[in-house]
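Lab notebook: predicted structure, single chain.

Context: the supervisor wants predicted structures on file for every construct in the current expression panel, including those that have not yet been purified. This is the next one on the list. No modifications to the sequence; it matches the entry in the shared construct table.
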Amino acid sequence: MNQEELFMNIQIIPYQTQNAAQAAEVWNQVVEDGLIMCCSVL
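Prediction complete. Output recorded below exactly as produced.
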């Protein structure tokens, strides 16, 4: 997953999730997938 894909996924998460628990699970996965990349960008 590249940076553009990460940002696109973040933008569509609210539309894909139905409740807070699911949203948190998706966010946790996004963070895990993008953490190293985001830190390297900063």
